[in-house]
Design goal:
Radius of gyration: 24 Å
Largest sheet: 8 strands, antiparallel
CATH architecture of one domain: Sandwich
Structural class: mainly beta
Shape: globular
Low-confidence stretches: none
Mean pLDDT: 90
């Protein structure tokens, strides 16, 4: 066992990866997929959303203010999809809700649509401006950043003179009225893709960035197209992958405008391709076109966020089924779902849950049967994490495959409810509950690495079945139980709670833990352990 302690403070410690695990026996890792609501929570209704021919689409962002009890949602109307080409631009729109399920479209008085500003339109959709692919509400930075940059957004702009993708940023004080950065684009070059997401690395004035970027406040994850793997005729596929870059304030101290050079951090491998073959085989009855030589996996999107001492992310796993170049087009026909990733440093990413979906596509005939698109990180709502996403029951670039007969069939299916326009769905999971360490009736143990606590008590996010229990032993650096804190002293933890307080007899901890590193040995029986956190013992 390593004798170098890990400083854990009083922050939530996740068990998504093995970073904190020194020894384990009789313990399994279990992924907990999000539970999707069966029907959309928001669909195209207003005239500018053109409910008769289109739907709601990407650039979906959501925040929740628990003090006001208000959900806020930014979305984009799409226009005709997928059987007709859009004739008009889409619109960036804004909605609010008190319960996250029933949404209102406030009259913002900002944008004129057919002669009236009585609508919820922020502006016409344009690349790089407004609440685009990666939006952040940085209220936590109010003490160190001016109020006019509370809301930040990054989006793709037009290509440069060499045909390479670029990205620009925008700012807002209220999330409704946006201004683009005057020196956009902030990133350009080397075959960047059409999307990027953003993440906060710090929360407040004290630097707490990851080890590799200790002073950075923000990270961007621009999508790139990289040659990886071989086609059947020995030509590398140009696949969608993700890079990371971090922020450096510009000369005027304006955050979110000056960035390090991106480095590649997430790319599909052979196992991804093998699993894509399995997913495409299972989805074959849904596919409009399919060619086995075109099958491969790419990463279409990434949403990342900080949770305690770990960065979690959800990647859009894009399974290409058919190259549109075969019929004179571009891009690919594909299906999309979400998988979980985790990192301690933003560079090395762990593929959690054996690469199984954390938000799976819906059943055939449902509004989200083909693709799950999302740009919003989970919202903490009580004891749950909520993710809003856009569901499609057509594959990527499906409109390129529609001939006249298929269009007629499409609209016939729409009329009788066999097809659906894209709409906003909601998925939920236990807070910090994507992955647990489990033991059955035979029991199991997990011992952590040496930890330097920031608190003298211990709290568990755990679920214990009837008849099961969790006990915790606190050990010194050599693995010996500290007096009064061995397994026999521990009062068994039972029941289901995000905030179990661990007791050893009448004690809830010891201030001596603050002065020396310790190990934690968890003994589980018919139980699931999600996270732990050192706390102030009372």
């Amino acid at each position: 066992m390593s004798l170098r302690p890990v400083a854990v403070g009083t922050r939530t410690q996740s068990l998504v990866d093995d970073f904190l695990v020194a020894q384990s026996g009789g313990i399994s890792e279990r992924l907990h997929p999000m539970t999707r609501l069966p029907t959309p929570v928001l669909q195209a209704e207003a005239p500018w959303e053109r409910p008769e021919v289109g739907g709601l689409w990407g650039s979906l962002n959501a925040v929740y203010d628990p003090d006001e009890g208000l959900f806020r949602l930014w979305y984009r109307s799409l226009g005709a999809y997928p059987a007709l080409a859009p004739a008009d631009p889409g619109y960036q729109c804004y909605a609010t809700s008190r319960d996250g399920l029933n949404w209102e479209r406030p009259n913002l008085g900002i944008f004129s649509y057919e002669g009236s500003t009585a609508n919820n339109i922020i502006g016409a959709s344009s690349r790089g401006y407004g609440p685009a692919h990666g939006m952040l509400d940085c209220a936590a930075m109010a003490d160190v950043e001016p109020p006019e940059v509370r809301f930040k957004s990054v989006g793709s702009e037009s290509r440069d003179d060499k045909g390479r993708g670029t990205h620009g940023v925008s700012f807002s004080s209220d999330g409704v009225r946006w201004r683009p950065y005057e020196h956009n684009p902030i990133l350009r070059g080397y075959q960047r893709g059409d999307a990027a997401s953003a993440a906060m690395l710090q929360f407040g004035p004290t630097p707490e960035g990851p080890t590799h970027f200790p002073t950075a406040r923000y990270a961007l994850f621009p999508k790139v197209h990289i040659e990886i793997g071989q086609q059947s005729h020995d030509v590398p596929w140009r696949r969608r992958c993700f890079t990371v870059c971090t922020s450096v304030d510009d000369a005027e101290g304006l955050p979110f405008t000056n960035w390090t050079e991106p480095m590649l951090v997430l790319a599909p491998d052979q196992l991804d391709d093998d699993m894509a073959e399995e997913r495409l085989a299972a989805a074959k009855p849904l596919l409009l076109r399919d060619h086995p030589d075109d099958h491969r996996c790419e990463f279409y999107g990434l949403v990342a966020w900080r949770s305690g001492d770990i960065f979690l992310g959800m990647i859009w796993v894009y399974d290409a089924a058919f190259e549109l170049s075969r019929i004179g087009g571009g891009s690919e026909y594909a299906i999309v779902e979400a998988q979980l990733v985790a990192s301690r440093n933003l560079i090395h990413w762990h593929r959690a849950g054996s690469r199984q979906p954390v938000i799976a596509r819906g059943e055939p005939g449902t509004f989200d049967s083909h693709m799950i698109f999302y740009h919003s990180r989970p919202l903490t709502v009580g004891d749950e994490w909520w993710v809003y996403y856009v569901g499609f029951n057509e594959g990527h670039a499906a409109k390129a495959l529609y001939d006249e007969a298929l269009r007629e069939q499409y609209w016939a299916d729409i009329r009788v409810g066999r097809r659906h326009f894209p709409a906003v769905g909601l998925a939920k999971v236990r807070r910090d509950g994507f992955v647990s360490r489990d033991a059955g009736a035979e029991g199991g143990t997990l011992t952590t690495r040496l930890l330097q606590p920031g608190g003298s008590g211990l709290e568990l996010n755990a679920s214990v079945a009837e008849g099961g229990a969790i006990a915790v032993e606190v050990q010194d650096e050599y693995g010996a139980a500290l007096p009064g804190f061995d397994l026999a002293d521990c009062t068994p933890v039972t029941g289901d709670s995000l905030r179990h307080t661990v007791h050893w007899g009448d004690r809830r901890g010891d201030d001596a833990w603050l002065e020396r590193p310790v190990r934690l040995r968890f003994q589980l029986r018919d139980a699931s352990l999600y996270t732990f956190r050192m706390t102030d013992a009372v």
